[in-house]
UniProtKB/TrEMBL annotation:
GO biological process, one term: phenylpropanoid biosynthetic process
This protein's UniProt keywords: Apoplast, Secreted
Protein name per UniProt: Dirigent protein
Family: Belongs to the plant dirigent protein family.
Highest taxon of the lineage: Eukaryota
Subcellular location: Secreted, Extracellular space, Apoplast
Organism: Panicum hallii var. hallii
UniProt function note: Dirigent proteins impart stereoselectivity on the phenoxy radical-coupling reaction, yielding optically active lignans from two molecules of coniferyl alcohol in the biosynthesis of lignans, flavonolignans, and alkaloids and thus plays a central role in plant secondary metabolism.
Classification via Pfam families: Dirigent (PF03018)
GO cellular component: apoplast
Amino acid sequence: MASYAITPVQSELKMTLYNKEVYAGPDINGVTIIDRQPMGTTWVFSWPVTDGPAANANIVGHLQGTGVQVANNPNFVWHYSLGLVFGDKRFNGSTLQISGTSQINGEWSIVGGTGELAMAKGTVKRTEISYMGNTRISELKIHAIYTPKNQTIASGKFEKA
């Protein structure tokens, strides 16, 4: 006997989060692993993601991945491959898989997800809201459609005839 479950129910996610990039000093959260000019520089990072832009905002996850410089004319352009790994109560352990080429103010594609955010598709609009010293704060407007694991509209068992 085989069992089955049908889960065509999808949910929409709209949220605004913030990430903090620190390029130097004791709180650095990214490092260059290949330094090439005029392009090809590669770095890895784990940027904290918070529910607000203030220093005392709650950390809800981390953007973890790599960035490769793919152009420098007229501005620096990077290709990113990253995961937004959630650590908050609602989506703890779930991820959004994000990819795309953009400048600081640009848009990435959500190309998948895991856990509660399985099979996510959508976009992340990234906008710089401050840059002081070696620290950049960006707003992340997330819009995704996903298939929650725990929503099933039909289930049962196949039996031999």
